[in-house]
Design a protein that fits this description.
The structure is a homotrimer. Chain A has 10 helices and 9 strands. Chain A is of the alpha/beta class. The first copy, chain A, has 2 domains: about 200 residues, 2-enoyl-CoA Hydratase, Chain A, domain 1 (Alpha-Beta Complex), CATH 3.90.226; about 45 residues. The longest helix of chain A is centred in the N-terminal third of the chain and has 20 residues.
């Protein structure tokens, strides 16, 4: 059976499922392209307020190594794979303005760590394991992926994963600042739902503006980015949700935000 | 009663108190302007060696929402509030060369997290709670404030606070690298004093030079900042405190630094 | 007895020893120059796959203060010391493409923290203590050193160490993200060996490429650095170790990488 990245939309919630039976949800080239298409569709859908990304039993165990001999040993096709297929998918996730929650169980390795690094909130089961042991396969991490992992996983852990092939458990990754929450395996679904329920009541346009600001600030010299952002940062002044949020607080009632 | 930001100077120590009775020390527009004036005064006072910032029972619960309807729904007045009032206060704290200790009890939310992020050392009681649930009020964080919080609170926690309105306790914020120390509520004052006592004996000009370097390095491309800093980094060579510190060590006696 | 930085090569492993008897391995000017020479030699040796840096009982207690009166009180000689001697040594470590493991016991202060910050993986005994109490000596940290420490130790801890002369134990430094692992003192050697054994089997050229990428990404605006790196990032496509790693995985056998 070949793998697949699924999108299911339920009201204002999008659920993205990474599925590759028998391969711990490893990403094939086709799946990277599906990941891109799925997140481009999510980005176009103004009715969405949250996305959850996960897989059955495992989050994602890495790349689908059975495909590697076909393209990895020529520079042009290797570059095409990393810059277009992989970064196509990860870049679409990073460009997505809708908040993304990672639901992480089992193996989260290589490509799994990269996909999780594109999420805004990461909740893991205590069975989850993390690493990027690609030095066992004789190759380094591609530059954009290394920049992403170094920023989100942290330099200490990125160096340990890549230079010593370390595999770390969920508790350790929580302590190192990669995970927001770690729960027992049978509590994972309810912990993710509690977070999504909290997000559902929040102002959806404010979330998109916050994500745009985080993205600009993460990528660029902070002083320049802040100056650029200020040009449009306050356009929301007269928006319905801004009025509703402040007014509801004043009237001591819960706000009602349209997605 | 309206709020107030107080400054009290006791020898080489400045104590800044955020006070807004009945509002958990929420910041009004006037208080942001007072915060700026207070820190501009501190910066001009060469006799100071440390500042401690705090409030009674609570650190600061956010902005004073009762004022919001008067200015938040027009872009020009909203921008004026964030860029001049809020950033006026936070910018004066960030521009202050005297080391600042945050003494954090109770609520530390929104504006409170921003003010604490401008301090050099953060000591909290185990009753302290942290968050920035402004998405409940229908608006995003302003760019300079988002840049500050993202850098100091960390991207993981900044995203969780802004995108899911999470409120985190002091233990969690210690684990996530925002707090230097968490103590039982009745030990907060003595923990802050122990830190201030340690700081009182240190070279005050060295502290100012270190803060200037941290500021330059945090804001700019690190390689350029280091190159710029080197132009004046070693002017202190012949200073009295440099001689006193090294000489006292050699003579096995405590150094005596003039503030 | 004067101090010395030793290099011993054993097959593909380099062992660097910081030794200054009676001074807890404090760095003299001569030792900084030896540190540079040692790492320049390591960098030229294509047969090496890992370096371990450490000292007897202590890692390194700082600079050799007994030399300070001879050069610290003139700006030109002070600058020469920091920019040429100290940064000569630290810069050579940072420029080294071979993975470096710090083996940290006892005092790791000032220069010790800086040397450890140039390592890729840091394993400490629970007896190790960390700090940079140079404000007791009346001087600030030099800019390049402050940039290094702020990035690797983290801004929270860098400010606490420099502005309040705090000394932190190994458990606290693990929690703050500076250490990969803390073990009981008599398990330090075996923990370091376990890490080196894991590294020995990994692809050595991939490790060098990963270190080059981390270095470029840490120093520069990330987007520009990634773009520059892409120019040569995929030259390894046809390399022997890339083929061997992927092929060995496919053939379900351990890879055999030549150093």
């Amino acid at each position: 059976m070949s793998g697949k990245v699924w999108l299911a939309v339920d009201g204002s919630l999008a659920r993205v499922t990474i599925e590759h039976p028998g391969k711990h949800n490893a990403m094939s080239r086709a799946m990277w392209r599906e990941l891109r298409a799925v997140f481009e569709q999510i980005q176009r859908d103004d009715a969405l307020t949250a996305v959850v990304v996960g897989g059955q039993q495992h989050f994602c165990a890495g790349g689908d190594i059975s495909e590697y001999a076909a393209f990895r040993f020529k520079e042009a096709s290797l570059r095409d794979f990393h810059e277009n297929d992989v970064w196509g998918g990860l870049g679409a996730m990073l460009a997505c303005d809708v908040p993304i929650v990672a639901r992480i169980d089992g193996n989260c390795m290589g490509a799994g760590v990269e996909i999780a690094s594109c999420c805004d909130i990461r909740i893991a089961s205590d069975r989850a394991r993390f690493g990027a042991p690609i030095a066992k396969l004789g190759f380094p991490m591609a530059p954009r992926e290394a920049a992403l992992v170094m920023r989100v996983v942290g330099e200490l852990t990125a160096r340990e994963m890549l230079l010593s092939a370390a595999v770390l458990d969920a508790g350790e990754m929580k302590q190192r600042g990669f995970l927001n929450q770690v729960v027992g395996g049978d509590l994972l679904e309810s912990a993710v739902h509690a977070c999504l329920d909290r997000m559902r009541t929040l102002a959806p346009r404010a979330a998109r503006l916050n994500k745009q600001a985080f993205r600009a600030l993460a990528l660029a010299d902070i002083e320049h980015a802040a100056t650029d952002l200020i040009a449009f940062a306050y356009h929301y002044a007269d928006s319905a949700e801004h009025r509703e949020g402040v007014t509801a607080f004043t009237e001591k009632r819960p706000p009602r935000f349209a997605p």
